[in-house]
Amino acid sequence: MTFQNVNLTHAGEVATLTLTSKKGSMGPTFWPEIPRVLTKLGGARALILRGQDLFSAGLDVRASAPVIAPTLGDPEAFAAVVAEMHAAIDAFAALPIPVIAAVHGWCIGAGLELISACDIRIASADARFSLPEVKLGITADLGGLQRLPHLIGTGRAAHLALTGDPIDAQIAERWGLITELLPTPDALFDRAHALAAGLAALPPRAVEGTKRTLHAHLPHAQSLDQAVRWNAQHMTADGLAQALK
C-alpha cells in the first residue's frame, strides 16, 4: 500500500515511519493515513518516527483551512474534524510497542504534540522545538497541553505554550523533553536504530506492560494495581527463571 504523507520500512523487528510530506507538514490527508499505516507494522517490536529534511513544520494550515474554516463557530462540527487528528496522535501512544521519536531540524506545533505521544524522544543538535499556536490565536488542542506537563513539568510546558517561543535541542535535553542529544542527524538515526533494536530484543509483554502503565497516568494505587495485574497475567515461570540466572 502506498501512502501520500509517510513511508514505512522494516529492518528486522524494527520499523521506521518517515514523514515524507513537504517539511513533514500535516494536512487533511495525513491524519486518516496514520491509523491505516500503523496496521502495517506486522511483527515489528519497536517503531522509529522521523522526518526527512526536518522532523515536522506542524499542521499544514493552508491545506487544512478549507476543512477547518466551515466548522468555526460550531463546536460539534469543529470537534469532529479535530477528533480525526486526535485519533492519529493517540494511535502512537496506544501501540503495544515502544515508539522512538528521532528529531532533527524543526519540530513545530502539531509535530511537538505528536512526539509528546511517543515513548522516547531523542534529537540531533540542530533540533528546534516550538508550540507557537498562541501567536496564531489558537489554543493547542492536539494533546500537547495534556502530555507535556507530565514530561517536562507544568512550568516549562507553560513557558512553551504561553510564549510560543522556540527552544533549542540543548534546552530540550535539560528540560527532559528529549533524553539523548546526538551531534548530527546521521548519528541520531544510527542511535535510534540501535536503541530500537535493543528494545525489540526485550520480552515484548514486559515492554507492553511497562508502556501501558506509564501512559495510563492513573492515581498511584491504581497504577500499582495495573502493573501487578499485568504481571500476574503475563509473567511466566520460564521468564522468571531466566531473570534469576
From TrEMBL:
Enzyme class: lyase
InterPro entries: Ech1-like, Enoyl-CoA_hyd/isom_CS, Enoyl-CoA_hydra/iso
Keyword Cell inner membrane: no
EC numbers on record: 4.2.1.17
CDD domains per UniProt: crotonase-like
Keyword vocabulary terms for this entry: Lyase
Short name of any one Pfam family annotated for the protein: ECH_1
Single GO MF annotation: enoyl-CoA hydratase activity
Homology family: Belongs to the enoyl-CoA hydratase/isomerase family.
Protein name per UniProt: Enoyl-CoA hydratase
